[in-house]
Design a protein that fits this description.
The chain has three helices and four strands. Helix content is 35%, strand content 18%.
Length: 105
């Protein structure tokens, strides 16, 4: 559930960055070897590999549609950071320095 919340927040933030033409902000958390796929059979379709290629693709998008605003209505996620019952937490939790013993979460 936490993973889904984080993923939704990141997705909304990404669309806001595109609307403001802030590509460095959009790509700040992306890995250097990330890939981006624009589906279809249009001239802009395909897979962009690497952060720089992705930035160039979005730059061309912004050139074509300089006044674009995305209003995200719904974001659906599935199996993001799925947590099973085998995760173990060790260490200090709570307040007043209470030590928590091994506990499955």
């Amino acid at each position: 559930m936490i993973g889904a919340i984080i993923a939704k927040k990141k997705a909304r933030s990404g669309f806001d960055s595109i609307s403001r033409h802030e590509l460095d902000t959009l790509l700040a958390d992306w890995a250097e070897d990330a890939s981006f796929v624009y589906p279809g059979s249009l001239s802009v379709s395909g897979e962009m590999k690497g952060k720089q290629a992705i930035k160039e693709w979005f730059g061309k998008f912004i050139e074509q549609f300089p006044v674009s605003t995305f209003r995200v209505k719904n974001i659906c996620v599935q199996n993001i950071f799925a947590l099973g019952g085998t995760n173990v937490h060790r260490g200090r939790v709570g307040h007043q320095g209470q030590e928590q013993r091994r506990r499955r979460i």
